[in-house]
Structures are given as structure tokens and as C-alpha cells.
């Protein structure tokens, strides 16, 4: 069973994005040889196009998108993708949207296709801080979560997708904000991914 895991390039004022860097650890440490990874841009349109192209070449059973949620404590698995773009900062192409539907004909929201409670439990049992989040926000993370869920639904694909947010990596220098070591994020995600093969 193939699993596609994606991470984002750095964005905004940050020059480092743990969701991109952790992909290298997953490739090296995961005991699942069927894991494929892809780095995607923080850009409306380009991001989901990159995921869909990779998905069509890999034909995965699961697509797990990773992103950075600076300031959050621990790893958070998202329950819901909502049909709205409301960017707090421009994307990598300089686009800023406010109160715009991602698909004007689409449903208000999609729920995660991941067994998120089991994945959270597995990360906790492995000794890592993990919890459920109700929303992936309204920036590019939510955009790709909704857009890919919409694509899977419209094309009646068997793949299931979901989104997981990572906190700051401790080397990013935000001493007053929650953070984790990159190695810990990698081990936590490996524990979560093993649930998909059960």
C-alpha cells in the first residue's frame, strides 16, 4: 500500500519549514518502503496541482499533507477542511484572497479520510505530544486539504487524504513558543503512519 506524504517549502518570514525537512527523515527511518514524498510550493493552484500530479504517478491509498502551524503545541491532526480562502499573508505568487470559496459549487467542508484518533493515540503512546485540531485554518494548508478532498470526491477515487500540522522546530529560534526537535517529529509521524498499514 503506497502512502504519499507532502510537505511545504518555507513561506512568509520563515526560511525553514519542518514539514519539508521531516520528509527526509520519513524516507530514511520509516519501515514502510511504500512511502513516497513530495515538496510543494506555498501557492494557491500550484500546490494542489503538484500534489495531484504526484498522486497520479504514485496511485497512493493515502495522501498525508504536512504543514507548519507555528505557535501550536505538539503535532495536530486536522479533522476538517473548509471551503474558504482567507489569507493572512500573500502566498508565494503574491496572491492574497479574503472570503473566497475554494470551489463555489463545492460542499462547505470535508472531513479527514485518515483514522486520526488512532494516529493520535499511536503518537501519544510513542511519547510525543499529539492532539486533534478542528480546522486547518484558511491559508494554503487548508486550501490544499480542501482542494485534494474535492478532487478525490469528484473523481470517485479510492484514495483517502488528510492533513497534519507540525509545530516550530526548535532550531527556528522562537524561544517563547512551543517547538519540537525534527527527529521527534519524524519518529512521531512514523508511529502514526504505521497505523495505516494495520
What does this structure look like?
By secondary structure, the chain is an alpha/beta fold. The chain has one domain (3-195): Aminopeptidase, CATH 3.40.630.20. Helices cover 32% and strands 22% of the residues. It contains 5 helices and 10 strands. The protein has helices at residues 18-29, 46-58, 116-125, 140-154, 182-195, and strands at 3-8, 35-40, 62-68, 75-78, 80-82, 109-111, 130-133, 160-166, 168-169, 179-180. The strands form 3 sheets. The chain has a 6-stranded mixed sheet, sandwiched between helices. Strands 5-6 form a two-stranded antiparallel sheet. A two-stranded parallel sheet has the order 9-10. Helix 3 (116-125) packs across helix 5. The N and C termini lie close together (11 Å).
Provide tags for this entry:
single chain, globular
Give a brief outline of the structure.
This protein has five helices and ten strands; from the N terminus they run E-H-E-H-E-E-E-E-H-E-H-E-E-E-H. It has 198 residues and is α/β, with parallel strands linked by helices.
Order of helices and strands: EHEHEEEEHEHEEEH
Number of continuous helical runs: 5
Helix content bin: 25-40%
Q: What is the CA-atom radius of gyration, in angstroms?
A: 15 Å
* Residue runs with pLDDT of under 50 for 5 or more positions: none
- Biggest sheet character: 6 strands, mixed
Strand order of the largest sheet: 2-1-3-8-4-7
State the name of the first-level CATH class: Alpha Beta
> What is the strand content?
15-25%
What is the quaternary state of this protein?
single chain
- Measure the end-to-end span: 11 Å
Tell me how many strands there are.
Answer: 10
Inertia-based shape: globular
Number of folding domains?
1
In CATH, the topology is named Aminopeptidase
- Overall pLDDT: 92
Helix-and-strand structural type: alpha/beta
- What is the CATH superfamily classification? Peptidase C15, pyroglutamyl peptidase I-like
Provide the CATH architecture: 3-Layer(aba) Sandwich
